[in-house]
Write a structure and sequence with these properties.
about 170 residues, alpha+beta, TATA-Binding Protein, seven-stranded antiparallel β-sheet
Length: about 170
């Protein structure tokens, strides 16, 4: 049985197609949000078309605003910003560029999301980069006293990396 997470597409506020992946920290290849950001930066910089623009600490920005509000379970939130633009046929396509991937530390898990791009090359690359944060195979869980492990049994919903709807 393949426990690989599957990206799911949802509509945020009934108009924005968003891809979201939630990964429990125990099943993540990376220990913290900065390590995930480093992985994503490496992916962007190694891509033949994508160009790195920068990183944005959304958490720090919002926390610094007098009117800023952050959900209590969000411990960190950062964006990596980049562009895939292979064509510039008219000025209107600039409205859907550049791209970003958001990473949020929720304490026990990471939530990684991005807005659907109008170009399959970009969507495929971003989905591949995001899915690569999951450890394959997921780490074994401690013996449950029955001579078996959660991983050997295919895991359970709370421990399995999962694609999640917004």
């Amino acid at each position: 049985m393949d426990n690989a997470p599957e990206m799911k597409q949802t509509l945020l506020q009934e108009k924005y197609p968003v891809y979201t992946l939630e990964v429990d920290k125990i099943e993540c290849r990376f220990a913290d949000i900065d390590a995930i950001m480093g992985h994503l930066r490496d992916c962007v910089e190694g891509h033949k078309v994508a160009r790195m623009i920068g990183e944005f600490d959304h958490f720090a920005h919002t926390r610094a605003l007098p009117e800023g509000e952050i959900a209590g379970n969000i411990r960190a939130a950062k964006h990596i910003v980049f562009c895939f633009g292979t064509h510039l046929p008219n000025p209107h396509v600039m409205a859907v560029r550049p791209r970003s991937i958001g990473v949020a530390d929720m304490g026990d898990r990471f939530v990684i999301s991005f807005l659907e791009a109008p170009m399959p090359l970009a969507n495929n690359a971003m989905e591949t980069w995001v899915k690569a944060v999951v450890a394959h195979p997921p780490p074994l869980q401690p013996d449950l006293g029955r001579g078996d492990t959660l991983a050997a049994k295919g895991g359970r919903a709370g421990l399995a990396a999962r694609a999640n709807l917004l």
